[in-house]
Amino acid sequence: xxxxxxVTGMIAVYFVIAAVVSAAETRPNIVFFxxxxxxxxxxxxxxxxxxxxxxxxxxxxxxxxxxxHYVTGVTCNPSRTGLMSGLYPARFPKYCADFGLSGxxxxxxxxxxxxxxxxxxxxxxxxxxxxxxNGTYGLDVVETIGKSKDKSAGRDDDVTTAAxxxxxxxxxxxxxxxxxxxxxxxxxxxxxxxxxxxxxxxxVKRSDFAPTMxxxxxxxxxxxxxxxxxxxxxxxxxYSIDRNMDRLLKTIDELGIRDNTIVVFSSDHGPAPVIxxxxxxxxxxxxxxxxxxxxxGGKHEELEGGTRVPFIIRWPGHVPAGRVDSxxxxxxxxxxxxxxxIAGINELPEQIDGEDISDIWFxxxxxxxxxxxxxxxxxxxxxxxxEGNWKLHQNRKKEGGVQLYDLSKDPSESNNVADxxxxxxxxxxxxxxxxxxxxxxxxxxxxxxxxKKNKSH
Length: 457
Hints:
It contains 13 helices and 13 strands. By secondary structure, it is an alpha/beta fold. Belongs to the sulfatase family.
C-alpha cells in the first residue's frame, strides 16, 4: 500500500510539472465569464435544488469545480479591483469606481505586453465611464454593453454576442484574453415570460433549502412576494446565463480552439439581499432569491455567503477534468500572478498580494502561502481574515466583537469559538492588525451628488 501511494503521488507531481512546462510554452487563450451577484449555490452543479444550468454543469464536468474560492470584495467594484490588480482593494487610497486603479498595473496590461489581444464586454465598474475606452488597462476593445435589445433572450445576450464576435475576429496567430462581465443576477431581477416559463412547474418547498435561506423567504413574503413566482423569476435569470455559456462553449468548439483555451466561470460576490437594510425594499426586491447554500450572509457581508463563490475552470490537458476541489483555498487575489505564470510573464508589479496558484489549477493540493484578508476602504470598517481553516472577524459590533470560526466544521459561521481558542485569536489578530497597519489612513470618494451616474455600474 505504501508503494502504491508513493507512485500515485509521483504521477500527480509529474502531471503538474508537465502542465506547467506545457503552459509556459503555449500562450493559451483566456475567456473569463463573470456573473454579477450570483450566489455560491445558484447552479445545479453547486447544489441548487431547482436550477437548470446544463452548459455550466458540462463545463464543470470537463474541468475542475472549486468549493473554497473567494472574491476580494463583497460589492462590485472592490471585487473587480482585487482581481484586476492583484492588490487588496483596501490598499487603494481612492475609491476605484470613482478614480480607476490610480496608475496601478492590471493583468490585462501584462497580457497585452505579452502579445495578447485583449477585450472587455459588459459591466465596467473599474473607474468612471470616461476610462472605458481603448487603451485603458491594456484593453484593445471595451464595450460597456447594458441590457440586451431582445429582452426575450435575457439581459446579457448582447454582451455575449459581442464577446463571441471578438473571439471569432481574434482567433489566429496571437492569443486573446476576454472579460465577459454580465449583469445577471444583479438587482432588479425581472425576466421575460419566455425565461420564467422554463420553471412553471416549480413549487417552492422550503425544506429543500438550508436554514440560511429561510429569512430571505420570509422577507419575500413580508413585502408581498409570492415564493413560487419570485423563484421562477430568479431561476429564469440564472438560466439565461447558462444559455449564454452554451453559445460561448459551442463557438469555442466550432473554432477548434478548445484545447488551447482556458474558460473560467465565476461570480463577483455573494447573492444580494431581499430587503436592503434601512433602504427597505423596492419593486422586484422580492425576486432577489439568490442562494448561498449552507453559507451565511451574502452581498455586502464578509461572511462566507458574501465572499465564497462558484469557480469553475476548464483547460483540456492541463486542468483535471471532472474534479471537485474541496480542499484548496483559492482567491481572485491570485488571478494576476497565476495568469502571468501561465502566459510566461516573468515581471510582475513590485507590490502584489496574490500568489501563483497555477499548480492548484493543475491538480496539486497545498496550503496557501499567505492568509486572505477583506476590508472595505471606509475608515473604521471591520477587517476579516482567513488562515487555514480559521476565519476571524474583528469588531463585529452587532454580534459581540471578535468572532472566530472553524470553517472545516462550521462553514455557516454559526458557532463562535473565540473563547475556546484564545491563542488562535491572539495569533490571527496580530496578523490582522499588522495588515491593517499597512493600509492608507485616509480614503477619498466622490460624493454621490457630485458625480454622474455610471449606467454600466
